Amino acid sequence: MSSLESTGGNPPVTSESTIETTTEKRPSDSNADTDIRYSTRLIPWVLWPTLIIIVLFVGVTIAFPEAMESGISAVQQTVISTFSWWYLILAFGFVVFCIYLGFSRKGNIKLGRPEHEPEFSTMSWLALLFAAGMGIGLVFYGMTEPLIHFATPRPGLEATDPSTGAAAEDALALTYLHWGLQPWAIYAVVGLAIAHAIHRRGRPLSMRWAVEPLIGEKATRGGWGHAIDSFALIGTVFGVATSLGLGVTQMAAGLRSMGLVGEGDLWVEYAMIAVVTGFVIWSVVSGVNRGMKWLSNTNMVIAAGLMLFLLIVGPTQYLAKEMVQTFGHYLQNFIGNSLNSSAFYGAEGDAWQASWSTFYWAWWMSWTPFVGVFIARISRGRTVREYLLGVILVPTLISVVWFGVLGGTAIFYENTRPEWYTSVVGSDGSVDVNSALFQVLEQLPGGAVLVVGAILLSAIFFVTSSDSGSLVMAMIATGGNPEPPNRIRVMFAVATAVMAAALLLAGGLSAIQTLAITIGLPFTILMVLMCIAVFKALHVNVQRTEAIRRMAFLADISDRFGLESDDDAVDSGPVSANTWWSSLSRERQREIHQRVGPHTGRRVRQAAGTAGEPSQDDNSQPDNTSQPDSTSDSSRA
């Protein structure tokens, strides 16, 4: 099979005149003789607009940090106060959309060829998801966010003067809302659209191909595609640089709480950036299957150890009961809290939304170019239903346990105030987000070890986030090469580190953070288009699967009973065919596909109603994905 056939008739390069290519084995192909041409150089129309915007922004921020921060903050406040309702509806809508896909027949579609198996074990896959999707935020906000909600309840609850128990319950339920179903659904829809394009349609690993079913191949390869990838690259660079700055700020606070460095030692943050960037380069060079996989698994072990230690040594019974109750409160009030725009509390409600719910939805959306591409990269071989369960449900449950243990521990000691415990909440209800975690941990049994573990956890999350970010930036900048050259990965790792250090020096991290959030608004339109595109593509997949099964069903009736057709079977449609198909053994299913596949490609496409679809999908693998190894490859169907 030629390289053109394996990718639906088109080589996955954007322009041979501007991109140097090399022949490499495609990782997702099972055929050893299949060669694909990938870009090994940066795409000018993606790279240069990105560089110009980033250099201008960083230069102005370093020169005028206070003016930039105030200006961008004003823009952010305007965006959030004006479009908070849109963010709320969209985040909730993505959850509903994912639930529908998971329970529908579209959930059986496999993200890859029928013979493809998952590249990573389930545990390693989940570890990589957490490292890229949440990462250092889990450590940064693990105790501080529940404490802040507890010390300063949201406007609607504060007006009722809640009891201590009600405030604690609402604080944890709100934290679950911000780190639960919505953020992972936001990541999932983008990742699914990209994963379907690259693993089923044979497209390069780039953001642009997620909307190809809507805008067509020509526009995807041309200016619109370049604009989408450039926009995604800008968001990724800003997001990773912000994480680097916030990560070193928290780690430095941990070292200062241990007395290892002084309060005025400003060199610590820059030394940490240099050291961590060295580990990032090592991880980048070793690849996803080695360095990053090992670091992600190590981080999961450390995080689980920290959480279990707090659960066992701390108020175990309280934490167990608190998690059950607050999780129930979260589920019971999920729809109301998801759509609560604080509309009846004026400026106070807008300020709270700008700091929390709407802020979070915009923040997650600004990260989707980075996280979506990375999740798509590591999710080959899983069905849509398995993908959604892994990307949404499992991380949500883990987040509930994580915040329930860490946040519940902090709230318990704030309530009970043992003699040996010093409150970390100020008299005005303020909480230091950088040092609150370490202030609580150092007062617990084995406090020094816990603080070291938390710093190590932050550092490894720091490395994995930067590593995955560098990989994604390199993939986008090279037009979707799943294994971009190490020199390009290292270049982006060093560039984001230098950018973070420069902004940290100028005090411009908050400016870049607010800009990253503002970028989330125009990206919402692209996310809606991705949902429409992946729905359309999955619908075609289901139709083609059902067409193949119906034809095989009628052929089987003809073989057994000598009948050319069966009106009852035809009228009942796919339901009868699917029921019959499920009753067959895998060997029989494979035999049927081998018999009907070579002769029925055109009839199947006509029966599925795909005449208006892009031609490359007609040459892609068949869609009998509920049985992983029961269908032939694209050359047979």
TrEMBL record:
Coiled-coil segments on the chain, per record: none
Annotated membrane topology: Multi-pass membrane protein
Region (Disordered) residue spans: 1-32, 589-637
Keyword Membrane: yes
Location in the cell: Cell membrane
UniProt biased composition (Polar residues): 1-13, 617-637
Claim: Transmembrane is one of the keywords in the record: yes
Chief location bin: membrane
Compositional bias of kind Basic and acidic residues: 22-32
Pfam families associated with the record: BCCT
Alphabetic keyword roster: Cell membrane, Membrane, Transmembrane, Transmembrane helix, Transport
Transmembrane segments: 45-64, 84-103, 124-143, 181-198, 231-255, 267-288, 300-320, 358-376, 388-413, 448-476, 488-509, 515-535
PANTHER family: HIGH-AFFINITY CHOLINE TRANSPORT PROTEIN, HIGH-AFFINITY CHOLINE TRANSPORT PROTEIN-RELATED
Family according to the record: Belongs to the BCCT transporter (TC 2.A.15) family.
Designated name of the protein: BCCT family transporter
Source organism (scientific name): Citricoccus alkalitolerans
Species lineage: Bacteria, Bacillati, Actinomycetota, Actinomycetes, Micrococcales
